[in-house]
Amino acid sequence: MTSWGITDPQLPRYRPARASDESAIASLHADSWRRAYRGLLPDAYLDHDVFADRAALWRQRFGQPDQKLVTVTVVAEGDDGIVGFAYSVADDDPEWGTLLDNLHVRFDAQRLGIATRLVTETARWLQEHATSSGLYLWALEGNMRARRFYDVLGGRVTGHGVFSEGGAPMPCLRYSWSRLDDLAGDGSPA
Ligand SMILES: CC(C)(COP(=O)(O)OP(=O)(O)OC[C@H]1O[C@@H](n2cnc3c(N)ncnc32)[C@H](O)[C@@H]1OP(=O)(O)O)[C@@H](O)C(=O)NCCC(=O)NCCS
Description:
This protein is of the alpha+beta class. The chain contains five helices and seven strands; from the N terminus they run βααβββαβαββα.
């Protein structure tokens, strides 16, 4: 059992984010980058700028959203706050479909199925609100935990790119799924 009591992936509540979640999401995002990208992005960035950087990103997403984009942020909320989130931009790319831009689960809540459920909920939302049926994302080549997760989720590596946030260009991989239906589960309440 974790120190804050989540033992079952059904326990968190899954819902669309609201404006009052801004600082909790930004903090989780920055802390997750610090932990997951240590050794991949420069220490100077992870030790100093990452909190201000993620805070600015979420301030902009909630406060001044790009009206041309259709986006969704799904959060997993435990008894002590937000333990995970997924942010997506619907129909981002004509070939690859929706961009799953951020997916993070709090370090002490991982391996409980929370990310799987966040992707399921996102895919179900997209089935209603997106026109394309594909989903894709970029993962740092060295982020092996995330890559294992995407492999298990049935993602295929369909391209190579360069990730340039944080000041040092890093190789990354495009993972893609051609059918939202494969990610959305069987339609029964999750
Ligand atoms: C990648 C991440 C989102 C996975 O979240 P999670 O809630 O732990 O994932 P799940 O519990 O739904 O995992 C489902 C399955 O994926 C695989 N998996 C997930 N994390 C894994 C890991 N660290 N190592 C090996 N396999 C893993 C397992 O098969 C797991 O099932 P199991 O626990 O029954 O063996 C989480 O590790 C995370 O937030 N990492 C830091 C941020 C990050 O890298 N985000 C992705 C950016 S591209």
